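// run 5 | inverse folding | seed 20
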């Protein structure tokens, strides 16, 4: 018997789950396909376990800092085994919640891989059945990249890092993006020897240049060994040692982690059986309402490579839900108003345009900056990171075009600023705000 659904969702990450739950709640017949654990990259092998590891790593400095405030603390040791066990327990808890919420909404969960036969039919891999959908939502996410060199499989991906039950003393990370930098800082804070291998002179090149410049300085100050303008040629294994052959020298390590970007997860979907078009990075092309070139197929999240953040995928799902139902048919997402954070030490928060973006777009702008040592570090001889704030604004209207905050709790601070940014933030709004004192973030309103 032909199994027909109103909606088939491919991928049970945050975006796919949100759409499936919302649509099933209206009485539509919805199924969701997932060939791994429900929850997707963020919950299972991404931002959630990463943030738990970051929390663990930050305690090291807090113990050291406490001594300058009069605390007598003995020698402390960290148990990676304990951290992994607790992380796994939390991820399992979240996974169960996702499954429970889907079932409660009336979504049928199919633990299988699906690929297109036609624009409205999907072949299941395990049980060989074919299912049909009036509309299909692709939310298959992204997958980590590997370098195309001999011996590349000796290294592991950023996804596989979260499966490690033990770590060697010396770890090398390849990459200059936010995943590579976050891994480097958290591992160094847990007292591992860390090498960071980057192809250029700078890091975080997709962000404002002041971010990369300062984060790299802090990485070096932290004791992370950075190999600049270094490209991989071959990876060799000798016992427990890994030899990373580069254009400059051979780097010896015990564990090699690739964090060299991610690609849309489309290779096994058989999209050639549809009218879907891909861009040069193999992301699914969609319009402002997440519809592909195939009228019955939509795509949300990382697979579209618009702004690859979990909250963005969720928001895209909500907008798509309203669009399909005709509730808010013309509502779109302004990606420039989406805040982001990098969980290095210190943290980085940003929203809007970076200076390099404004120059590239030839937008007239002026810049306000301030950099200072926070009160918290007053007792410390070797003051740690400084707080850096950068505000870019239109010289005529004084509308804020972009904002950067580097410092402790930057992620929490930028989240609050994102609310103001959504409505339109002007310099006069900052001028008229009475600051909370003493805080580091008060410099946002006294920057003039």
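// decoded
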């Amino acid at each position: 018997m032909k199994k027909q659904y109103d909606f088939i969702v491919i991928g049970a990450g945050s975006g796919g789950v949100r759409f499936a739950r919302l649509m099933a709640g209206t009485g539509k017949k919805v199924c969701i396909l997932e060939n791994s654990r429900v929850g997707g990259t963020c919950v299972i092998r991404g931002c959630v376990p990463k943030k738990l590891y970051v929390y663990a790593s930050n305690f090291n400095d807090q113990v050291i800092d406490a001594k300058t405030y009069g605390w007598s603390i003995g020698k402390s040791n960290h148990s990676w085994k304990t951290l992994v066990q607790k992380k796994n327990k939390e991820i399992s808890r979240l996974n169960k919640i996702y499954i429970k919420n889907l079932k409660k909404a009336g979504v049928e969960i199919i633990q299988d891989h699906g690929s297109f036969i036609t624009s409205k039919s999907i072949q299941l891999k395990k049980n060989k059945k074919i299912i049909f959908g009036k509309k299909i939502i692709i939310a298959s996410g992204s997958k980590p990249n590997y370098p195309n060199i001999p011996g590349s499989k000796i290294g592991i991906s950023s996804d596989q890092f979260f499966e490690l039950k033990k770590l060697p003393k010396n770890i090398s990370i390849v990459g200059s993006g936010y995943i590579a930098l976050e891994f480097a800082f958290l591992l160094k804070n847990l007292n591992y020897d860390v090498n960071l291998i980057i192809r250029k002179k700078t890091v975080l090149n997709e962000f404002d240049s002041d971010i990369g410049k300062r984060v790299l300085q802090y990485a070096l100050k932290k004791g992370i060994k950075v190999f600049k303008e270094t490209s991989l040629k071959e990876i060799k294994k000798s016992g427990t040692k890994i030899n990373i052959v580069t254009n400059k020298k051979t780097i010896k390590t015990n564990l090699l982690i690739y964090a060299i970007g991610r690609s849309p997860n489309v290779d096994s979907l058989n999209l050639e059986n549809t009218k879907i078009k891909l861009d040069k990075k193999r992301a699914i092309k969609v319009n402002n309402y997440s519809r592909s070139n195939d009228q019955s197929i939509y795509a949300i999240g990382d697979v579209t490579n618009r702004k690859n953040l979990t909250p963005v995928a969720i928001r895209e799902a909500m907008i798509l839900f309203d669009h399909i139902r005709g509730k808010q048919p013309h509502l779109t997402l302004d990606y420039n108003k989406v805040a982001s954070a990098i969980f290095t030490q210190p943290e980085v928060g940003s929203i809007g345009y970076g200076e390099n973006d404004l120059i590239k777009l030839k937008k007239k702008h002026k810049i306000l900056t301030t950099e200072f040592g926070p009160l918290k570090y007053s007792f410390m001889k070797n003051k740690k990171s400084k707080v850096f704030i950068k505000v870019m604004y239109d010289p005529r209207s004084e509308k804020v075009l972009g904002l950067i905050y580097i410092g402790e709790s930057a992620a929490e601070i930028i989240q609050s600023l994102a609310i103001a940014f959504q409505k339109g933030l002007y310099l006069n709004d900052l001028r008229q705000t009475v600051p909370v004192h003493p805080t580091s973030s008060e410099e946002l309103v006294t920057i003039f």
